[in-house]
Design brief:
There is one protein chain. By secondary structure, the chain is of the alpha/beta class. It has six domains: 3-108, GIY-YIG endonuclease (3-Layer(aba) Sandwich); 110-178, Arc Repressor Mutant, subunit A (Orthogonal Bundle); 185-260; 281-466, Rossmann fold (3-Layer(aba) Sandwich); 472-518 and 577-711, P-loop containing nucleotide triphosphate hydrolases (Rossmann fold, 3-Layer(aba) Sandwich), CATH 3.40.50; 722-814, Alpha-Beta Plaits, CATH 3.30.70. Helix content is 36%, strand content 22%. The protein has a seven-stranded parallel beta sheet, sandwiched between helices. Strands 5-2-1-4-3-6 form a six-stranded mixed beta sheet. Strands 20-32-31-23-30-29 form a six-stranded parallel beta sheet, with helices on both faces. Strand 3 (34-39) and strand 4 form a beta hairpin. The chain is globular. The protein starts with a strand and ends with a strand. The chain binds adenosine-5'-diphosphate and zinc ion (ZN) (2 copies). One zinc ion binds at residues 533, 535-536, 551, 553-554, 556. Belongs to the helicase family. PriA subfamily. It is an enzyme of class 5 (isomerase). It catalyses: ATP + H2O = ADP + phosphate + H(+); Couples ATP hydrolysis with the unwinding of duplex DNA by translocating in the 3'-5' direction. Pfam families: DEAD, Helicase_C, PriA_3primeBD, PriA_C, Zn_ribbon_PriA.
Length: 817
């Protein structure tokens, strides 16, 4: 009898492949184990076993495997089922999913680049001969590929050796980033609590009269404390008092002052001794409604206004699942930058039952989380992660929480699998018989529609925690302000007044401008020429600081031109404005205030985002200017004013979701104001104060937004009434692409009895020298989705079979966002 295994390769090939194994190997291997296999003429890949059988393949002579890599499965059968669903639904291959799902250290292949890493305490004698040889080779080269290791060692079974070196930390993979985020610790100082009592303080000052410098400092601290009403950093105290560090130290030694670090003591700073808390009445009602809902529904949507304390409800629910069901919990977040705050809140509560999983983690850390889950370890009861955490080896999932479920970052754009993590989570939960809780202050139209049709349950939380009121939103008519000359730069008089007052009170301001850079583009006033990127179809963005024009798509940049490249005129004008320009105007308007900026340019460093959030939370800035990054669930307790510089560019987007997104973004940004105690204020500058969407934001009227947008979606044949598949075709040759996309369009049109639109040049129709065309297929919700996709897949296959078109790259985006 012959023995075969079916494997998946981490490649975009549609099929599984058959390899031959010996009888002994056949008896040993299980589905979910990895094997190293030869592929093509010389390549080695790590493949995943998904089947065992005795039927030789019809079309090719099966090869033998190089070696079995695992003693136990590293992927379970539920995962394989889920991955198959993702591949099927999102029209990609299971190889695409496999590759996206596992840490790169799990799928070493010929081209994998290995880099040397400095390690202390790794004596040579701890290394096997083969390991020593690899490290020797790396001493002379900055990197080597796995293929080269095969040559160096003169054998094909090299993957275990490389794995051993990886786990010893002696080498690293090229893709990985190993840097760990260390929160910045700022040293603060405060007076010991006993001196909060008048009599003790008087006593102290009397004692200190023999140490006048110390006495003076205590008095100075008091003044500062009363005036600033915020924590006082040691540095600040030294600077403003002129006292020496020795004086401070003396007072610390006497237990008059206590020093603390705001990161470690944040809980204390918020006057909470430990992480435990009670739900408010409204929260408790929502909590039991969710519990009750779960008896009938698998998916519940928690629609809770900003700062209603959704996180606290999640925490209690998770606790319940851990305690009563003893099951695993997955907590999905739209973006990892946010987790710094959230992870802190959750770890304070659950301790090391929490495992965090995200792309900035090093390979070893990710493998550790993977293995912990595989063993159903106590250290991974709750996994917090971004979308790819869906693919981890959960064995007994009880609950999935999807926070900020409306966020578009849950949908992966490129590369495949182009999945929506919220939707894929609902499917994963079904496989595990688990429950799903979606949470948002501004639910997506899709989810809310699912509530309306009875597919999901709904729980509403309409008040903020702790009797805090929702911020008051005021509109500022830009047309009027410009007409009456009440603008200073991009600031109306009203906005300026309010900023002044807020910072004067020691409170903080967030300003939102949905564009980065100094101004979007430069225009010639004589001939109208706008400098464009030669590689991409976009205008270049002007950066004042570097005096540069730069492309946001490919990074191409040139020095800011002094004259028009088209007509030589010197009359060039910067159009529109971005965050950088706002920041500079603020520096001029408020020279003695500290201004921070948060956008893709300032957060580029590995932990840039976290650093800015930390500094702002530590009140190192008075005003923070930023793009939509600011809208993402951040909890700052001292922000009382939010200003939106121009709401209109959110409305004027060529996208059927533009109004829904504008509503979400404006509501979320507004939600950053007045989250604790003091009432917040939001000022929105706009040319269209009567626009329905703007009015819906002002009135906090989600229902009206939903009704209106749903109506539009129906009229114009968009989700949730139609499912959308967007095909993108790409090629360097403009004419060939044009011809190919027309072919595709016509064939689709012929075979599908549903709307097919295009082929269209997208907004940005050329990226990195490749032209783009898109075709939109709209599938009525009542149609059989699977059948339609099969037809489309067949057409894609026959397109590829036309030799003239083979070089045109086509990708499908199902449920296009
Ligand atoms: P949301 O996620 O709904 O915007 P958060 O969960 O961030 O709101 O809660 C807003 C603020 O209120 C947070 O600072 C949080 O710590 C606080 N808070 C909410 N609920 C409670 C509670 N039950 N006990 C103590 N503090 C709470
Ligand atoms: Zn470019
Ligand atoms: Zn010109």
């Amino acid at each position: 009898m012959l023995y075969f295994i079916e494997v998946v390769l981490p490649l975009a090939v549609a099929k599984t492949f058959t390899y031959q194994v010996s009888e002994a190997e056949f008896d040993f291997v299980q589905i979910g184990m990895r094997v190293a296999v030869p592929f093509g003429k010389t390549k080695i890949y790590t493949a995943l076993i998904v089947g065992k059988h005795n039927t030789p393949p019809q079309l090719y002579q099966p090869k033998e495997i190089h070696q079995i890599l695992d003693e136990k499965p590293i992927v379970n059968e539920l995962q394989i089922q889920h991955w198959n669903w993702v591949a099927d639904y999102y029209m990609c291959t299971i190889g695409d999913v496999f590759k996206a799902a596992v840490p790169s250290g799990f799928i070493l292949e010929s081209e994998t680049q290995l880099l040397p890493k400095e390690v202390e305490n790794l004596p040579d004698h701890q290394l096997k001969d083969d390991e020593y040889l690899i490290l020797e080779a790396l001493r002379h080269q900055s990197s080597i590929t796995l293929q080269e290791v095969v040559k160096i060692l003169g054998k094909k079974t090299v993957i275990p050796t490389i794995n051993s070196l990886l786990s010893k930390g002696a080498i690293a993979l090229h893709e990985e980033m190993t840097e760990q985020y260390k929160p910045k610790l700022v040293r603060y100082i405060k007076l010991h609590v006993i001196y909060h009592q008048q009599e003790h303080l008087v006593e102290l000052l009397e004692i200190l009269s023999r140490a006048p410098k110390q006495r003076e400092l205590v008095l100075h601290y008091f003044q500062l404390h009363v005036r600033e009403r915020k924590p006082i950093a040691v540095k600040e105290l030294i600077e403003s008092s002129g006292a020496s560090i020795a004086v401070i130290k003396a007072l610390i030694d006497k237990d008059v002052f206590e020093e603390y670090y705001i990161h470690e003591d944040r809980v204390q700073f918020e006057k909470k001794e430990d992480a435990s808390f009670e739900l408010s009445l409204a929260q408790a009602a929502a909590f039991s409604a969710i519990e009750k809902g779960f008896q009938q529904q698998n998916v519940m949507l928690l629609h809770g206004v900003t700062a209603s304390g959704k996180t606290e409800i999640y925490i209690k629910l998770i606790e319940q699942f851990l305690k009563e069901e003893q099951q695993q919990v997955l907590f999905l977040l739209p973006e990892i930058a946010l987790t710094a705050q959230l992870v802190q809140r959750l770890t304070a509560y659950f301790g090391n039952q929490i495992a965090v999983f995200h792309s900035k983690y090093s390979n070893n850390e990710r493998i550790e989380v993977w293995n912990n889950l595989l063993q159903n370890s106590e250290n991974a009861r709750v996994v917090i992660g971004v979308r790819s955490a869906l693919f981890l080896p959960f064995s007994d999932l009880g609950l999935i929480v999807v926070d900020e479920e409306h966020e578009q970052t849950f949908k992966q754009k490129d590369p495949a699998p182009r999945y929506h993590a919220r939707d894929a989570a609902v499917v994963l939960a079904k496989l595990h018989n688990a429950k799903v809780l979606l949470g948002s202050a501004t639910p997506s139209l899709e989810s809310y529609y699912n509530v309306k049709t009875g597919k999901y349950g709904l729980v509403e939380l309409k008040e903020r925690y702790g009797n805090v009121v929702l911020p008051e939103i005021q509109l500022i008519d830009l047309k009027d302000k410009y007409f009456r000359k009440r603008m200073t730069g991009h600031f109306s008089d009203v906005l300026l007044e309010n900023i002044k007052e807020t910072v004067h009170n020691g409170e903080q301001v967030i300003l939102f401008q949905n564009r980065r850079g100094f101004s979007p583009y430069v225009e010639c006033l004589t001939c109208g020429h706008v400098p464009h990127c030669p590689n991409c179809d976009v205008s270049l963005t002007y950066y004042k600081y570097k005096n540069q024009l730069k492309c946001h798509y490919c990074g191409y940049n040139i020095a800011n031109p002094t004259h028009c490249h088209s007509c030589n005129s010197l009359d060039l004008n910067a159009k529109g404005f971005g965050t950088e320009q706002i920041e500079q105007e603020l520096v001029r308007l408020f020279p003695d205030k500290k201004i921070g900026r948060m956008d893709q340019d300032t957060t580029r460093g590995k932990f840039g985002f976290e650093k800015i959030i930390d500094s702002f939370k530590n009140r190192e800035f008075d005003i923070l200017v930023g793009t939509q990054m600011l809208a993402k669930g951040l909890d700052f307790d001292n922000v009382t004013l939010v200003g939106i510089l121009n709401a209109d560019n959110l409305l004027n987007q060529p996208d059927f979701r533009a109004y829904e997104r504008a509503f979400q973004l404006l509501t979320q940004v507004s939600g950053r104001a007045g989250r604790k105690e003091k009432k917040g204020k939001v000022l929105i500058q706009t040319y269209n104060p009567y626009h329905n969407t703007i009015q819906q934001v002002v009135n906090n009227d989600y229902a009206a937004m939903f009704q209106e947008q749903l109506y539009e979606r129906k009229n114009f044949k968009y989700p949730p009434f139609y499912r959308i598949i967007r095909l993108t075709l790409k090629h360097k040759d403009y004419d060939k692409l044009k011809e190919g996309s027309l072919w595709m369009y016509n064939v689709l049109k012929q075979h599908l009895n549903i709307p097919v639109l295009g082929p269209e040049e997208p907004m940005v129709s050329k990226i990195r020298n490749e032209y783009l065309r898109t075709i939109l297929v709209k599938i009525p919700a009542e149609n059989h989705l699977g059948k339609t996709k099969k037809t489309i897949q067949k057409i894609l296959n026959s397109f590829e079979a036309v030799s003239h078109y083979r070089s045109i790259k086509v990708s499908a985006n199902v449920d296009y966002y």
